[in-house]
Write a structure and sequence with these properties.
By secondary structure, the chain is mainly beta. The chain is built from no helices and four strands. The chain has one domain. A four-stranded antiparallel sheet has the order 3-2-1-4, with no helix packed on it. β2 and β3 form a beta hairpin.
């Protein structure tokens, strides 16, 4: 996954699990890693790789 920003700031984004289709909000860290908001796991899938759907509205041109 490519980083969303080249700053030290984290961002919020909508993300989905490609296995089960679960959708939720995640923090996107500068290194591109994702952390589900308000929960420790995004879904019940083992080791799922989340895919970002949309980033914060503020980040759009």
């Amino acid at each position: 996954m490519t980083p969303v920003a080249n700053t030290d700031e984290k961002h919020r984004a909508a993300a989905t699990c490609p296995r089960c289709g679960e959708i939720g909000i995640v923090k996107v860290w500068p290194d591109g890693s994702l952390q589900p908001l308000g929960q420790s796991d995004f879904c019940d899938c083992p080791s799922s790789t989340l895919r970002i759907l949309e980033t914060d509205i503020d980040e759009r041109p």
